Amino acid sequence: MTPARKLILLAALGSAALLAGAHIFQAMGYAPCKLCLWQRGPHWAAVAIGLVALCLPWRVLPWAGALAAAAAGVLGVYHTGVEQKWWLGPTSCTSGGGLGGSAEDLLGQIMAAPLVRCDEVAWSLFGLSMASWNAVLSFALMAVWIAAARRR
Q: Residues 39, 93: contact at Cβ < 8 Å?
């Protein structure tokens, strides 16, 4: 395996690991807010780009992976700013649940759903929230993608 392919694999697995971590935290009872969910999208894109880049030698793919990782990092910085009250976040909150059933069932689901706020830190390590860690690690993955692009 070439050095570029190894870096692509590392970057794609890094995004997959961040997604796995997010889902593990969710399974542990840390319901994601709207911004948490937004941050997952670019990581899914990076994983998909990585899979394609391992199969096709297109030079643009590692750059696309770097862009996806950068987008996740920017969203992480934005979310961190919302948590720190540096700027306002979305006015809507996120909750789970389907839209099936009667109006009474739907109202019951809405009333029972937890309120997940984007401006509150649910968990932190060494003073950094999950959003902050996502930003740091996403920018590190962006650097790995760029290194892969330069070697391809």
A: no
